[in-house]
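Figure 6 in text form: structure in, sequence out.
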């Protein structure tokens, strides 16, 4: 039995999986986001209760925004700010009396889909999160690729490839730079882009609804979005050459997004063919918490 924890800014979700990936237990509670000690206590209580209900002792993996610094071992870049600067893995290991593995939530998404989702059996899987931000994760031969700096898959903080003159120098990014891919393809970025082209201040579902009705500005905004995502992913293909690209996050729910992206890739990929399959996540919003459980791999 393995337990996965999705430690988010508003909720903590726990799932327990059998070795075949069958769900045995699931529960979620609100995140006590103002108190680090309370978060540790909440996770300990969730794990203890789940193990009691299942009469097992399980492995525990945790997915959360941000990542552990390879230099300090402390968490950084989490939107739950009380976690930043804390040795989260060590404190949870101490609280639970066992090894606890921690990974970025986008890495957990990619691992889930590579293990028993849309990328199952593929040699190289690139998992993409398109939501309020833009993240990614890489799985090679079933193994999560962390990288020497624990940033493997962070495609969203590279410059938008092949920019048009109107896209320069690009919007300011929270990372301190301008023109990052995230500033063009996240949900909030698409809404801002529509306003910049004379449209209304509306969210992406409304943009999509109006586009389906044939409204010109909204259609153009989605066209720019698809083109920019495709350029960003083409640069990933040129470096990583994945077999499968799995899309997740709220933006992945746009109708026809897989075909729209796939159709635009050949113009930018450095090859006479594009064999990377673009698909949506099988496990949807559950991919993150399932991937946290799979931080402890299947028995062999």
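Output sequence:
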């Amino acid at each position: 039995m393995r337990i996965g924890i999705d430690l988010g800014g508003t909720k903590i979700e726990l799932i327990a999986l059998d070795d075949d990936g069958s769900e045995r237990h699931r529960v979620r509670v609100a995140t006590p986001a103002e108190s680090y000690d309370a978060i540790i206590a909440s996770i300990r209580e969730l794990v203890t209760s789940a193990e009691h209900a299942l009469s097992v002792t399980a492995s525990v993996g945790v997915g959360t925004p941000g990542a552990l610094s390879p230099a300090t071992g402390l968490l950084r870049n989490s939107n739950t700010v009380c976690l930043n600067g804390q040795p989260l893995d060590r404190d949870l290991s101490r609280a639970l009396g066992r090894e606890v593995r921690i990974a970025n939530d986008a890495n957990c998404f990619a691992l889930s889909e590579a293990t028993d989702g849309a990328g199952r059996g593929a040699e190289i899987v690139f998992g993409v999160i398109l939501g309020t931000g833009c993240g990614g994760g890489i799985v090679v031969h079933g193994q999560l690729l962390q990288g020497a700096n624990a940033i493997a898959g962070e495609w969203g903080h590279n410059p938008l490839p092949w920019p048009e003159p109107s896209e320069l120098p690009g919007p300011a990014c929270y990372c301190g730079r301008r023109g990052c891919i995230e500033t063009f393809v996240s949900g909030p970025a698409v809404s801002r882009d529509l306003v910049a082209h004379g449209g209304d201040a509306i969210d992406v579902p409304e943009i999509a609804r109006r586009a389906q009705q044939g409204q010109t500005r909204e259609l153009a905004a989605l066209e720019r979005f698809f083109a920019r995502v495709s350029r960003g992913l083409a640069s990933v293909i040129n470096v990583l050459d994945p077999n499968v690209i799995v899309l997740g996050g709220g933006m992945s729910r746009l109708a026809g997004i897989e075909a729209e992206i796939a159709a635009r890739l050949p113009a930018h990929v450095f090859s006479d063919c594009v064999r990377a399959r673009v698909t949506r996540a099988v496990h949807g919003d559950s991919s993150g918490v399932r991937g946290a459980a799979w931080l402890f791999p299947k028995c062999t």
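Caption detail: The first strand starts at residue 2 and ends at 7.
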